[in-house]
């Protein structure tokens, strides 16, 4: 879009805000309703009213408007978004992004963190869990724009990474003969959120291949050395050095310490030293300085600092300090976050 066109659109939006200030609330509410129906379809009016925490009468009126415009179908099993509704939802996402001035917020966050790019998803994850699905969707779309022939993609574990794989659209044909591998070992008991599971799911959707790393993340260096002699494990460890695109979640130091089951003394020590983030085998303070090293399997800190294509995704205002700290490690970072987290970072 040309600069003049962008200016005209922004100017029109500002005029709309002044003449019909109630427009933005109505627009956001109906977009939110359409989005909720899309993610939960088929869904009945009563369930929708419960999810939105509003009266059934209000839902009935709004739903009738969406149906009259051809955005949804209503059947015995519930409501479904039509093809027109899906297309409209895509357009509304961009419009609301501009209406809220999120382009300016993205630029401000990128400048403050001194990183390559910031993408802000409208909404507050702390108030609306569906925002995480939007983060997953946006990240998946952006990831595909970076793919080249024989790209090796590394991805870590966690809820946000799992959502990226879930929201990625299935490709009809292979985009780039990509190989997806776990960028770190297993951590925790939830199989769906393990890097191995996420890597396999993403590879299938990209019509690519994948390698699995059958090794826990927090093992001793002696055991790591011993296990690395296994041909299957050595193949994946060698592949990690070939990662061209890294997609990772940003963990708070205290939460990651709990997942690693550190003892109380170690956790107290981390807090005393001001640890706010954990990544790539280290705990960091708010300035991105190393506080403590931990045994880990996967992408090393030195390797991370050399990567040109890295995508970090996070949601929730509690991640602000962790995001700020990790952003200091590589200026090539592209950050995908929610509106609430972006606002918190700028405070």
TrEMBL record:
Which keywords, in A-to-Z order, does the entry hold?
DNA-binding, Transcription, Transcription regulation
Q: Which Pfam families match?
A: CggR_N, Sugar-bind
Describe the location of the Sugar-binding domain by residue ranges: 98-347
Give the organism's phylogenetic lineage: Bacteria, Bacillati, Bacillota, Clostridia, Peptostreptococcales
Where is the CggR N-terminal DNA binding domain positioned along the sequence? 29-93
Q: Which InterPro entries match?
A: CggR_N, NagB/RpiA_transferase-like, SorC_transcr_regulators, Sugar-bd_dom_put, WH-like_DNA-bd_sf, WH_DNA-bd_sf
- Hey, which family's this protein in? Belongs to the SorC transcriptional regulatory family.
Indicate what this protein is called per its UniProt record: Central glycolytic genes regulator
GO MF term set: carbohydrate binding; DNA binding
């Amino acid at each position: 879009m040309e600069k003049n066109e962008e200016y005209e659109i922004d100017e029109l939006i500002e005029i709309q805000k002044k003449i019909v200030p109630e427009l933005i609330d109505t627009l956001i509410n109906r977009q939110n309703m359409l989005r909720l129906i899309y993610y939960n379809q088929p869904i009945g009016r009563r369930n929708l009213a419960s999810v939105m925490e509003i009266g059934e009468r209000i839902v009935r009126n709004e739903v009738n408007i969406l149906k009259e415009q051809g955005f949804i179908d209503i059947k015995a099993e519930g409501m479904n978004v039509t093809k027109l509704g899906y297309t409209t939802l895509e357009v509304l996402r961009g419009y609301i992004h501009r209406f809220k001035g999120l382009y300016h917020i993205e630029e401000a966050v990128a400048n403050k963190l001194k990183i390559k790019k910031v993408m802000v998803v409208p909404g507050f994850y702390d108030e609306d869990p569906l925002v995480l699905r939007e983060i997953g969707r946006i990240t998946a779309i952006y990831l595909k724009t970076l793919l080249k022939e024989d790209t090796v993609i590394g991805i870590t574990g966690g809820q946000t990474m799992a959502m990226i794989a879930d929201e990625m659209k299935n490709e009809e044909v292979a985009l780039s003969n990509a190989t997806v591998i776990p960028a770190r070992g297993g951590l925790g008991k939830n199989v769906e959120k393990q890097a191995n599971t996420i890597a396999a799911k993403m590879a299938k959707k990209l019509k690519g291949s994948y390698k699995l790393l059958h090794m826990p993340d927090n093992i001793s260096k002696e055991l790591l050395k011993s296990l690395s002699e296994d041909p299957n494990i050595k193949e994946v460890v060698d592949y990690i050095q070939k990662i061209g695109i890294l997609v990772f979640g940003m963990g708070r130091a205290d939460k990651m310490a709990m997942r690693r089951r550190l003892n109380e003394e170690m956790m107290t020590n981390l807090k005393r030293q001001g640890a706010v983030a954990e990544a790539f085998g280290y705990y960091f303070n708010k300035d991105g300085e190393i506080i403590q090293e931990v045994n880990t399997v996967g992408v090393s800190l030195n390797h991370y600092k050399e990567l040109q294509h890295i995508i970090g995704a996070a949601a929730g205002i509690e991640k602000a300090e962790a995001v700020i700290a990790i952003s200091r490690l590589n200026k090539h970072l592209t950050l995908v976050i929610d509106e609430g987290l972006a606002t918190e970072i700028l405070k």
